[in-house]
Structure formats: structure tokens, C-alpha cells
Amino acid sequence: MTGTPDLLAEDLHGAARDPALGAIGFLNEVMSRYPEAISFAPGAPHPEFMRDIDTRALTDRFVDHLVAERGFTPDAAQRALYEYGPAQGLINDLVAEALGTDQGIRADPREIVITVGAQEALLLALRSLYPRSGGDDLFAIADPCYAGITGAARLLDIPVVPLREGESGLDLDHLAARCREAREQGRRIRACYVAPDFSNPGGARMPLAARHALLDLAEREDLLLVEDNAYGFTAPEDDGLPCLKALDRHRRVVHVGTFAKVGFPGARVGYAVADQRVQNGAEQRTLAEELAVLKTMTTVNTPPLAQAVIGGLLLEHGRSLTALGRPKAQRYRRNLDHLLEALDKHLGDDLPPGITVQRPAGGFFVRIDLPVPADLALLEVSAAEHGVLWTPMSQFSLTDRCDRQLRLSCSYLDPDQIEQGVKRLAAFLREEAVA
Amino acid sequence: MTGTPDLLAEDLHGAARDPALGAIGFLNEVMSRYPEAISFAPGAPHPEFMRDIDTRALTDRFVDHLVAERGFTPDAAQRALYEYGPAQGLINDLVAEALGTDQGIRADPREIVITVGAQEALLLALRSLYPRSGGDDLFAIADPCYAGITGAARLLDIPVVPLREGESGLDLDHLAARCREAREQGRRIRACYVAPDFSNPGGARMPLAARHALLDLAEREDLLLVEDNAYGFTAPEDDGLPCLKALDRHRRVVHVGTFAKVGFPGARVGYAVADQRVQNGAEQRTLAEELAVLKTMTTVNTPPLAQAVIGGLLLEHGRSLTALGRPKAQRYRRNLDHLLEALDKHLGDDLPPGITVQRPAGGFFVRIDLPVPADLALLEVSAAEHGVLWTPMSQFSLTDRCDRQLRLSCSYLDPDQIEQGVKRLAAFLREEAVA
């Protein structure tokens, strides 16, 4: 496309020109140039779960539920699929029940808002909590961090404070120090984004004591915690930890979830549990109700067609997120085991100097630390010479902290691809990742 | 809900406390208190169109299209329903074709972004065009105006300039004067929202000459026009006017459309045609591509399940929005005729002094001017004493210009309800709307 431009990029909102987006573009472009390469880059769900979803049967099941348990007439239940629906959502009761059963989160349907994926839930929560765009209030995030949350903050011009993250998650001392610093400057950290279970991309998991300590810190520093629970379902079944919201005695946590992984991404159904009481003159309402009002200005309501399919999935799995996610969790744990075993086998005994491999207990991602920059130039070499792709961790970072790290994702590959890919990766690391 | 609050409304984003929202809440509450009242308030589609939508057959039809014309393998086409999809959309080709056939809009799929309803399209367009929240650039809108656009502007803290609207739409002299005023203050009106066909709630329609004049004004004043075309399909078939985008020789128009009326609202599928060339360093891309990047930060992508059903509807109707919307347009025109005839019959010969009735040629809405304030107190009287409901026009207004106007909607009623409702309305107007 050439010719006289109508608009200059610098006159448009800068979120569309975030450097990370350029890196994603480059990554996609490398993938398209090396179609034979095995790619550990995309964190997409496994394709086997993207088939044989009987949306008609699931929808019918949900319609029956509306009639049997929610007092809809058969005609009104059918129409609910096609009409505008309540901004706050149509499946809040089922989500509330599942969160209670599976995760020990006691939430009333009024304390939940159903959103177009977790992304919209994050956007709405930030919009509500940061009323003045470009204002003084700061938003703390782990660094590296999921691009969706930095993107949402960027879109709303909310200033972000990157925090260190270790194997046991967010560095709480760092968070406390940054809270103090902000106060000294007459500002405050209003909220902190945290993914306690197998964070994307860092793969960190917070131990139970750290979860309690974070909640205490939030209470002490008057922070709200925006918890993202996308990968919690991949924890080993005998080693589950309560999410922050289940431990939250002071309503400090806005809990964000998604059906993209336990269900399927194309539904674009997520939710926020926001039970905070908002005082509005003489009246109180929940923060979820507040977010639902804002939602009328972003997407009006989440497509009832999509909510019905997700509602049907919950009903079909005993109203349990755990049951719904179990076959997927098993597949992802197997894949992660394969990946870690293959790394042991092909790299383990003579790990090149300066290379370390993280060993997460769940999630989609494994981090490898290199003695050299894991940049786009190195990725190009990896693709061209060794036929294997990965994601530079720097793509998820606002600092230079992750410049020598790469992220491997194993979610959408099969065991033989993982084995073959790690073989190539090992050769690449031995030959190219040398200080 | 009572008890110690966790948050104060004044510390959260004010968009959730817009006065218009309070009025909507009151209106809903009145409707629930008077369930026997006939309501001319909601602008919802007629329920007869919310039945017997065979989503399975429509989805299958779209999957076949992906295979036959888009080069998908059968497996990839199935998976496209359930996976994340392209942020820019999955049905852009069909929408482009339909807009070309039906509305004379020549758009490439790259110049279109598919969104979660028209609402997200408006939000993304505003976000891109107003890079500095609370900045100096102004956004002009007709007053009264569709609440979705004022809501989106409010959510992004974009200052709004209300413009007068007459029977022939936006007052162009007023717009030119406000552009001058803004310039004199060192500011500018960056964009103007306009619904040229049967605007909601005003019911105005711009004649062809006014459309050309508006485009000329936009070119002269360096404005972008955000065109909302939700009601254009209701124009009489022998009296269609080209939309602004079809007349747009200088890429001044971002054209926003929705399938909520020609299809069904629960799909939550809309689109923006944004063919503007954006210069970004050495590269050019379309504004639609720019909006798609921002969309990764709001909803990631529009649910493929919903896009597939809409794609199927287009395929089933010869890839024509006009064909898809025809039975609906006929129903709405009949309803409007019924409404206007009933108003003539029950009010016509002895219209109380100071009352005038607008006579739009299409759309969902009729405006009535009263000699007294059409406020919530009068609405309460109308409901309690006369069993008929309507919407105070002031709910859609940022000024006091509409305080003595009410809006009647006829879209979701049946002829006998319209007849009966107008009878009640006539009695109400004669008895209560007296200066």
C-alpha cells in the first residue's frame, strides 16, 4: 500500500505501535518464512480440543436449564440466545456455582460479570479503578508479563510499574518498596496484576505462604489485586493451591478467569469476580455491577450464543470447571512432562555453561536462561539453521531483565513434535547460545 | 446490600455514573412496576425475528464457504470456529462484498474490522482518533444522540461538542461554527458522529445535498466523520439514499455498521469500514488494521462462533445485507405506518396546542414535541394513570434542548399493541401534556 497517507501514526493512539507488537509481528513473519520449523512459540490450546464441539446440543442443554431452573418460558429461553441480554451476563449462576465447588470462591451471581474473554474483564477492571487516564495512580505488574494486561493498561494510558518475579512469583519486597517509593512521590500503586499459578510467560507459581503474604501486603498498602487464573487448572490434582480470591478475607481481589483454556478460545467468554462493595451516595452495589455498566460502553453484552455454549459445557460437566478442564489439564501436564524429559535427555548431562532450565509444575510455559541475548537475531538463526522457534522473553518485558531468556510453550504440540523440537533446540543451544 | 463499603463510587471511573444511566435505570424500574403498560420505550428488534434461527445450518454453510472459497482444509475450517481467530475478523470478505453490492461502498477486506457489535467499533475508532484522553481534541455529536456513542466518549474521557439536529439531520452551519470556535481556542474538532438515516433517537434523515455538503465541510475543516448506519436498511426501497461512505471521495468517513438489526442482536457482530491510509514510518496500513491492533487489547477477537452464524446468514441471502434485512425492513415500515396512522386517527384532527408529531420515512422512532417538560415525573403519570410508556428525549441529550420531547419506538410491538398504545397515549397527551 502506497500513496498519500490520510493519517499519520503519531496522531493516533500509541497503543497500536507498542514495541512488543512489532516483535509479535516479526515472530509471526519468521514462522511464516520457516513453515517446516517446529515452533515452541504460540501458547495456543491443543487442536485436539478444537474439534467435535456439539454447539447445538450444548446450547439446547443451556436453554433447558433456563427453563427448568431460571424460570424462563421455553419461548423466552430461545429468544435469550438471539436478543440483547443483560450486560452483566447470562451464565453468572453457573459460573458462581462452579467457582464455589471447584475453587472455594464464594461469589453471588451479582458479584460476577461475564465478559468477552478475560481481556475485556481486565480492561473493565482497569477502567473502573483508574478513573483518570494518565493520572497519578500506578499499576504494578510482574515483569515479564502477559501482553494482554500491559496492552489494556497502555490503551487506557495507565502508568505501569514493573516488578521482579522469581520462581515463587511476584517479589513481594519489591512490591512493598515500590509502594513506599510511590507514596514518597505523592502517588500510589492502586492495583497489582498477579497470576499466582504458572504465570504467562514467567511460569512462576506462588507458594501458599506467599499468597497469604501478598494479601496481607495488599491490606496494609491499600492495594487491589487483579488475579488472573488462566493456568491454575493445569496444577497437578494432588497439588492444587487455593487461588488468592479463595483466601481473600477483605475483598482485596478482583479475580479474572477465562473459558479459553478449560473450554475453547473461540467462545471468547471470560469473567471477573468483583465482590467489592461500591458506595454510591446512599446506595451500594458490587464492583461487578459497576463493571457491567462500563461494559455497556465497550461491547454492550457478551454474545448470548457464546455464553449458552459455555453454559452447556458447564452443565455437561457437573457444573464444574475442574471436570470441564480435566482432560485438557491431563494433556497439558503430559506435554509439559514430555518437554522437561526431552530437555533432560538432550541437554541434561552436559548443559552448556550459563544455560539454566526452569522446571514448572504446571502451565504452558518453560523458561530457559541463556548466557547471550535471546533476541530476534538469535531467533532468526534458530529458525534458519536449526528449524526450531521460540519466543524471546523480552517481548513480554518492559525492562532489560529478560533479555537473555526465552520462552518455550508446549501446549499445542504433540509428543513427537516436542521430542524432535527439543533435539533441534539442544543443537541450537550448544552451537549458538555460547557466551 | 449494606455494610462497610470497600470502594467509593467517586474513586472509580465516572462513566458508570452518567446521569443518563440513572434515567435508564428509572425507566426500567417504571416498566417493571407497570407490567401491563404498553411500552413505546425500548428500541429492541421485533421478537418474531428472534426465533427459528438455525445456527447449526448457518454455521455449516459458513464452514463450507471457508473450504470452497477461502482455501481452508475441512479440518482447519472446523477449528476456525473454536480457536482464537484473526483480530481483524473472519467474515471481512463477505461483509466487503455485501457493502459493495448493496450500498456502493467499495472496501477491501483489509479496510474492514469485525467487532463485538457496533459499540466496539465506535470505541476503537474513538480510541485511535483521540490518542490523548482528556486532551484538547473535541468530538462533535448530534444532540440528542445515541447513548452508545456518548458512553464510549465518556469511557475514554473525550470531550464532546453537542450539535443541533433538525428534520434534515445535523445542523451543518452549527458544526462549521463550532469548528471555528474550537480553532479560535487553539483546539480542534477531530471527528463528528453522524447517523444520516433515521438517527436514534432524533429520527432525522439527511437529504442527498446535505450529505454532500457535510463531506465538503469535513474536507474543508479536516474532520473525520464517524458514520453509524444502523437504521439505513429501513428506508423505503424506492427511496434509498447513498450513505456517506458511498459518497466519500477523500476517505473522510469511518463507516460503522451492525448486524443487530438486519441479523439479530445476540450475535454481537458489527464492523467498521476504515480505509484511511495510516503512515507509520516507512510503512502504510489501513485504519482498519490499526483498529484491529487496538482490538487485541479490548476483546482479542470477535467470537468466531458468532461471526460464522452471521457469515452463514449473508451466504443464505445471496451475500446481500439488503436481502437479509428485507423482511425486517418491511415489518418495521409497517409498524411505523401503523404508528403514524394511529397517531393521526387518535390525535390528528384536534392535536392539543403545542404538540407536534414528527413523520419520519423510516427507522424505529417517532419524536413528539410537547408544551410541557417530558420528564420522569410525567412518565410516571403516563404509566400510572394511562398505562403507556415512552422515553424522555432528555435522556439522550447533553443539553436542555430536548426537555419537551419524547421518543416513541415501534420496532418490537404488534399492530394491535400500537393501536391500543396510541389510544392511551392520546388520552395521556390530552389530559396531562397541557401547558
From TrEMBL, chains A, B:
Domain Aminotransferase class I/classII large: 76-425
Keyword Transferase: yes
Record GO terms (molecular function): pyridoxal phosphate binding; transaminase activity
Keywords per UniProt: Aminotransferase, Pyridoxal phosphate, Transferase
Listed cofactors: pyridoxal 5'-phosphate
Highest taxon of source: Bacteria
Pfam families referenced in this protein's UniProt entry, alphabetically: Aminotran_1_2
Keyword Transferase among UniProt keywords: yes
SUPFAM superfamilies from the UniProt entry: PLP-dependent transferases
Gene Ontology terms describing biological process: alpha-amino acid metabolic process
CDD domains referenced in this protein's UniProt entry, alphabetically: AAT_like (cd00609)
Protein name in UniProt: Hydroxyphenylglycine aminotransferase
